[in-house]
Amino acid sequence: MPLSPEQHQEIEAQRGQSATTLRAVSPGMEAHLYKAHQVLDHGFVRVVDYMGDDSAIVQAARVSYGRGTKSVSNDEGLIRYLMRHWHSTPFEMCEVKLHVKLPVFVARQWIRHRTANVNEYSGRYSILDREFYIPSAEHLAAQSVVNNQGRGEALSGEEAARVLAWLKDDAGRAYDHYEAMISQEGQQGLARELARMNLPANIYTQWYWKVDLHNLLHFLRLRADAHAQYEIRVYADALCEIVKDWVPFAYKAFEDYRLGAVSMSTQAVDVIKRRLAGEAVTQETSGMSKGEWREFVAIWG
Known about the structure:
By secondary structure, this protein is an alpha+beta fold. It folds into three domains: 5-133 and 202-259, Gyrase A, domain 2, CATH 3.30.1360; 136-200; 266-300, no CATH class. The chain has helices at residues 5-15, 27-32, 54-62, 72-84, 104-110, 157-182, 192-195, 213-223, 230-246, 248-259, 266-276, 283-286, 290-300, and strands at 36-39, 43-51, 95-103, 117-120, 141-143, 151-154, 204-212. Strand 5 and strand 6 form a beta hairpin. Pfam families: Thy1. One of its GO terms (molecular function) is NADPH binding. Homotetramer. It comes from Ketogulonicigenium vulgare (strain WSH-001). This is Flavin-dependent thymidylate synthase.
């Protein structure tokens, strides 16, 4: 289970506290504050703190006092304009601090997004829990034949059962040896900072991750995409639901202009124009590589 009974009690105690404040609050985000949203088999995402809302984006763009100088409808229009034209600094006025529990191999993908403040659970000082990510059957997939960094169809039958058994057995055996190495019963015991190197990449770690909205949306654009690896995409999907409630105007603009949008190369624009003019364009006459043409056809036909 992602959270122990003690952790649930701690969260409920946090949510039971309240304080008056003069700063802007987001009712949607207040509903998420401290709650743990389960991801994968043992993981979660929860909001620990946040700053700003939609009005903070508008205020920064207009450099105005209070909640802005125009109507709510104009506020939404301005946010959409800022998103449409790739402005960034107004969105940096909002920040969120998250507590995330995730498998180590997902964390290594996640940490590539370097525009955040991170503090991870230390395997040098603390003993890691016996919790491993074990994929469900439908996510035990073969290597893709068209994408070197993707997966294809799900494994089946004896092969799927064998792989699943290996994943479970290997993880359990590695942790047994980890415990045996650090044990001080009848021996000195190996240092935790050394013993941890024997643990598998599917063991769970935890961290606090603080990021501004601009960089969070960049993370979501890449990791909530259908081509992202499933195990990190489900974390991005959970974050999308949180951001949607936190800054609804900004998130709707993000959906329209980033998440659901298509970027076109100069060659792609030229092909569209030539097609509209009645020309039959092929890959050979498009100026695109085979890979570029395949992606173009997948979107435009």
